[in-house]
Amino acid sequence: MDIQKVKRQYRLKQWIEIVSQCRSSGQTVATWCAENNINPKQYYYWLRCVRMAACEFLPKSGSSESSIVPVTLPGSLLEANQAAPTTAGSPAPLILRLGSAIIELHNDASPELIAHTVKALAYAR
Hints:
It contains five helices and two strands; from the N terminus they run ααααββα. By secondary structure, the protein is mainly alpha-helical. The radius of gyration is 22 Å and the shape is elongated.
């Protein structure tokens, strides 16, 4: 590996941390950059580099690989879900579509099931 590539990887790792700090601060980019003596143009340049590097790790579209996010539900949730079967013909009042995944929530869904579903969706993004 040549020196330029190593240097670029090192700077990219630094900027991943900087971007993370800025995002988690709750401030606007302009305010955060002013407080941390960072040129906003430089910040946006490296933000683009960080995003491009992140895209390299995404699965290629049309690839046969599919990612599965395991969800573990407590036993009480499984029993509550099995106790109230839904009819196949009744439409769900809430339908979420995320890529190729479709999640239907019916009125009789328990609050715990909804909470766990939302948590699982946060990790799926």
